[in-house]
Design a protein that fits this description.
The chain is α/β, with parallel strands linked by helices. The chain is built from five helices and six strands. The longest helix has about 35 residues.
């Protein structure tokens, strides 16, 4: 009887364990599949667990069941190994003002995310301004939202992709030449 009970427990438990193990691989696979297709003006959002499911047709949301820091690390690694895009990183201006009293663990998160993002320039804007930019971009461009298990507000990392092989300075020089030529 014990063997039968053990057998039944295994039969029901293994699919659940398999699904839990497969889900994180699914988001990494989706990221890897998307990266060659994503380009200048696309966005990748790594968001907290309360981030809303958006209804715009250009927005794709993927549940990661992973920590926000792990997902940020994986996304930046994927971007940095691409030949065609580089990250422009945005974070909520509200984050420095969130207290541990209101959101336990926020100070530790700020320290860890600062360490992870130290090689990059981070643009800090009020949350609603970032959301407005993303909403506007989603009308024309694809946005990949990777939802994490983070439960601290204003911790999301918003990455607008830019062209790796064409710098902002090169674009400025081009526009200046065009303006000087009357174009």
């Amino acid at each position: 009887m014990r063997r039968l009970a053990l057998f039944l427990v295994c039969c029901f438990a293994l699919p659940a364990v398999h699904n839990a193990a497969a889900q994180p691989a699914a988001w990494k696979t989706r990221l890897a599949e998307s990266m060659p297709l994503l380009g200048h003006r696309n966005w990748i959002l790594i968001v907290d667990s309360a981030y809303p499911l958006q209804s715009s047709p250009g927005v794709e949301t993927v549940e990661t069941s992973a920590s926000l820091l792990d997902v940020v690390h994986a996304v930046l690694d994927t971007i940095n190994h691409s030949i065609h895009v580089r990250p422009n990183i945005f974070m909520d201006a509200e984050l420095p003002f969130v207290s541990d009293q209101d959101a336990p663990g926020v100070s530790a998160y700020r320290t860890r995310i600062a360490s992870l993002l130290h090689p990059y320039t981070i643009q800090s804007l009020p949350h609603e301004q970032i959301i407005s930019r993303i909403d506007q971009a989603g009308k024309t461009f694809h946005i990949l939202v990777l939802k994490t298990n983070m439960t601290i507000p204003y911790t999301s990392v918003f990455i607008q992709l830019n062209c790796r092989y064409w710098s902002d300075d090169a674009e400025s020089r081009l526009r200046a030449k065009m303006k000087a030529a009357g174009k």
